[in-house]
Write a structure and sequence with these properties.
Layout (H helix, E strand, L loop, with lengths): L15 H15 L6 E3 L8 H6 L4 H25 L4 E5 L8 E2 L2 H9 L3 E5 L9 H11 L5 E5 L20 E3 H7 L6 H9 L4 E5 L5 H6 L6 E4 L2
Parallel strand pairs: 1-4, 2-3, 2-4, 5-7, 6-8
Antiparallel strand pairs: 7-8
Length: 227
């Protein structure tokens, strides 16, 4: 999930309206028995790469970004619990008692017990984005698919905000994305998904109900598949 989307129409921070919308969508899906793991970015609070451009040490900037993802994770956990959904935050860096230290076994135990698991702290390493964290956790927990919820309703031939003639793909292969040089997520994350056969669906999470419609089988967003 995009951290930047959490700010809604604000320029910074967390929009309670967007947070509530996300919680309601996740609740509806969880009620159907789907096991859910979530990685959320921190761009609404601090983005490490932007900090580096402003004079921050890159490693420290990325560490600040990791902490931002944990703040968002706690906010989402709180919103889910307020909606009657069991949720746990597992972090890649030790933050007890804020969140539990991540392990695959612990994550699967919670998911099998009906909890929504939120993975905070990125990969715990600088120079890796939350895209990479999402790909890594998806591969580790043997997810069926990686859903990239953004403000864009799929993958286009070009940036639809800049090119009005851009057209959206319903499906596209990993190889086609490489050949067309499309920027869906950072290349480290994309390659990790490709090498491990983890399909990606890019969709608009900001439209209420889209998550449920997607998982019920509707053609929402763009599917990236191996072939």
């Amino acid at each position: 999930m995009s951290g930047e989307s959490l700010q809604g129409s604000q320029k910074y921070g967390i929009s309670t309206e967007v947070l509530q919308s996300y919680a309601e969508q996740i609740k509806a899906v969880a009620a159907g028995g789907v096991q859910i793991g979530i990685v959320i970015g921190g761009g609404n609070i601090f983005r490490g790469l932007q900090g580096a451009k402003r004079g921050f040490d890159r490693v420290k900037g990325d560490q600040m970004g990791m902490l931002a993802t944990i703040i968002n994770s706690i906010a989402l956990q709180s919103a889910l619990e307020d909606n009657g959904v069991k949720a746990r935050v597992l972090t890649s860096i030790r933050t007890e008692p804020i969140g539990e230290y991540y392990s695959k076994d612990r994550a699967l135990e919670y998911m099998e017990a009906g909890y929504v698991v939120i993975f905070g702290g990125g990969t715990s390493n600088p120079y890796f984005s939350t895209d990479s964290a999402a790909a890594l956790r998806g591969v580790e927990i043997e997810a069926d698919v990686l859903l990239k919820g953004t403000r864009v309703d799929g993958i286009y031939t070009a940036d639809p905000e800049k090119d009005p003639t851009a057209t959206r793909f319903d499906t596209i292969t990993f190889d086609e994305v490489y050949e067309r040089n499309l920027h869906i997520m950072d290349m480290t994350a994309f390659t990790l998904c490709r090498e491990n056969g983890l399909g990606i669906i890019v969709f608009d999470m900001d439209t209420p109900g889209n998550l449920g419609r997607l998982l019920s089988g509707e053609q929402i967003g763009t599917l990236v598949k191996t072939n």
